[in-house]
Specification:
It is built from three helices and eight strands, in the order E-E-E-H-E-E-E-E-H-E-H. The model has no long low-confidence stretch (mean pLDDT 87). Strand 4 and strand 5 form a beta hairpin. The protein is elongated and about 60 Å long. Helix content is 20%, strand content 35%. It is an alpha/beta fold.
Length: 127
């Protein structure tokens, strides 16, 4: 699900409407090619609320969305997952970090194990 950030004044909970303006309109219309009825997630950045909306109308300068429901709790996992990762060869650590974060890992701790092939000098250890 695609997520967009808007100013809090663009979210009207009384009329159940959310208005998206600016560069996001072009992105929704031309790049993502979304249509009325598609669902998106909206955040204001000021609070932890996530607004789930359905697109009602796509115009040249504005996208009008219908507010379906508000998710107020955080999206963090109820428990913290720590990953102790042995040092991999080459530049695989970036991919490991990316995928672990996507899965919801709270903290990644690199470990130099006894049988690890990779040995770090002082410069690489800091990096």
């Amino acid at each position: 699900m695609y997520q967009f950030f808007v100013d809090s004044d663009k979210i009207n909970t009384e009329t159940h409407r959310v208005f998206i303006t600016g560069q996001d309109v072009k992105h929704i219309k031309n790049v993502l090619r979304m249509k009325p009825g598609d669902e998106i997630s909206i955040k204001s950045g000021e609070d932890a609320r996530e607004y789930r909306c359905g697109i009602l109308n796509i115009e040249e300068e504005m996208v009008t969305c219908e507010l379906r429901f508000v998710r107020e709790e955080g999206v963090e996992l109820p428990s913290r997952v720590y990953l102790f990762q042995a040092l991999p060869k080459a530049d695989k650590m970036e991919l490991i970090i990316q995928k672990a974060v996507e899965l919801g890992v709270y903290e990644i701790i690199p470990v130099a194990s006894k049988r690890c092939v990779v040995r770090l000098d002082d410069k690489r250890a800091k990096k």
